[in-house]
Amino acid sequence: MHTSTSASTYTRVVVISTDNQLEINEFRDSVGAQFPFLADPERIVQKDLDIVEYTDPVHDPMIPHTFVLAPGLKIRTIYNGYWYWGRPTVAELHRDLREVMRALRPDFDLSAPGLREAWDRGEREQFLVTPVEGEAIRYTEGTEIGVKR
Fold this sequence. Notes:
Layout: H1 3-8, E1 15-17, H2 21-31, E2 37-39, H3 44-48, E3 65-70, E4 74-80, H4 90-104, H5 115-120, E5 129-132, E6 135-138
Parallel strand pairs: 1-2
Antiparallel strand pairs: 3-4, 5-6
């Protein structure tokens, strides 16, 4: 997922690996990733989630997993990537994240019954945009015009 895409969709990606920080940095740089890679050489996550790849006792890696999380770190979807075909496609992640956003945003579908009427009544709390002199503007930070709430 590209940084620009994840920034505009209010999502974040993180990788957790049992490799040491130097190996992780080299790998992250080699693939051009712009998101964080976290080192867990003590295998705390592996043990806490019971995802030991027992078929490789020499290297003691984690079974690769992908978790789609909703706010509050609530697990929405789990993909077990031991085999390549168990790993999520971009389309599957897109679908999962769409469903998370649909559950969070009352204005996800602007054609939903009652939304237009709420907008016309000036009930703007449920909308991500606020009109400014007839034009909609997206918030990015803070409480002022053009700034995220």
